[in-house]
Design brief:
145 residues, mainly beta, three-stranded mixed sheet, 10 strands, 39% strand
Length: 145
C-alpha cells in the first residue's frame, strides 16, 4: 500500500526515507581492583547535571556485576553529545562512598578518561559525539586510595 502511494506521488523507492535508527554504545571497563560489588553506569546528554545523570529521566543507566573486565551496552542511543560516569560500588550501597567526606573510597571512571582533579571532571573533558553507527569505548576504572 505504501509502495503504491509512493508510486502515485511520483517517488520511487529511492525517494522514500529510511527510518532513523538509533545506535549501540558498548563500553569496556578495565582495571577494576576487585570483582566485589557492581559497576553503576550512566550516560547523559545534559551538561548541567553531569556526572549525576540519574537526575536525567532520559539518561541511559545500568548496573552490572563487577569483574576483571566489564562490558556494558546501551542500546537505542539517539545521536547526540553524551558523557558517561561510572562507579565501582564495591559495597553495593548505591552511592559513591568517600573518605573524610571528600576523596572517593570506591572506583570511578568517565568517558574519554576525563581527568579528575579536586572535583568530578568538566563536561567538556568527558563529552563525546554519537552518530547513527554503533560505538565502542574503553574506560579505565581509577581509585583514589
Amino acid at each position: 500500500m505504501i509502495r503504491a502511494a509512493a508510486l502515485a506521488l511520483g517517488i520511487g523507492a529511492v525517494g522514500m526515507a529510511a527510518p532513523a535508527s538509533a545506535g549501540t554504545v558498548t563500553i569496556t571497563v578495565t582495571d577494576l581492583r576487585s570483582d566485589e560489588g557492581v559497576v553503576r553506569a550512566c550516560m547523559t546528554t545534559v551538561e548541567d547535571i553531569f556526572p549525576r545523570c540519574r537526575r536525567d529521566p532520559n539518561s541511559h543507566r545500568t548496573v552490572v556485576r563487577a569483574g576483571n573486565t566489564v562490558t556494558i551496552r546501551f542500546t537505542n542511543v539517539e545521536p547526540g553529545d553524551y558523557a558517561i560516569a561510572l562507579l565501582h560500588d564495591e559495597n553495593e550501597d548505591g552511592k559513591a562512598n568517600r573518605v573524610l567526606g571528600m576523596a572517593p573510597r570506591e572506583g570511578y571512571g568517565f568517558s574519554r578518561d576525563a581527568p579528575v582533579r579536586m572535583a568530578p571532571p568538566d563536561w567538556d573533558d568527558a563529552v563525546f559525539t554519537i552518530g547513527r553507527a554503533s560505538q565502542n569505548l574503553t574506560i579505565k576504572m581509577r581509585y583514589f586510595l
